[in-house]
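Risk register update: the risk of archive-format incompatibility is retired. Evidence:
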Amino acid sequence: MLRFVNEIGVVVRFGFEWNGSTVVVKAVEICSMTIDQVRRRLSEVCSIQAKLDAEKLALSARMVSLLDDPVSPAYVIPERELVAHGGLTSHEARTVIARGLVTEVAPDMGAVLASGDTTAAHVDALGRGLKIAGVEREAFLVHLPELVEASTTMSASEFSHLVTETAKSVVTDDGLSTFERQQRETFFTIRNETDGCVT
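Archived output:
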């Protein structure tokens, strides 16, 4: 999004609209929008962002396929390419690659993302569900059609809760699987304090 003040002092935002294979630039005066127009525009921006996220996933998948090309393989590291040419941070690039792994397992979710009907946050939630399911991944993937449908109507936080509950329901509940599930759900952060102690 580009933002500038025009010659009469009105803040104008350039919106980018995805039109199949091209981006159409529209000038919108934010200060004259009603709340309904703001909400509608936010919804449009969300859909455009989802399509752009899906395109990043497709480009990342293409880079991986170039590695395995039998005719003319190219040495490429997708994470580095996303950072160098995609304007992403290393963390964002790793997130894109992780999303690509999720949509590889669940291509229906990738298709819904490409249509703009869900968000990358929903794909991330599905990835967490796959991680929680662990060895019970196949049992979890049985629920995929319902989860994909739910991703188009639920908010990201509601969907995340649904995915987590679905993943937990398919995990057999013996002591070892509970421990392994808790281990997969636990993340530690290490921090150095100013006095040199590690916490």
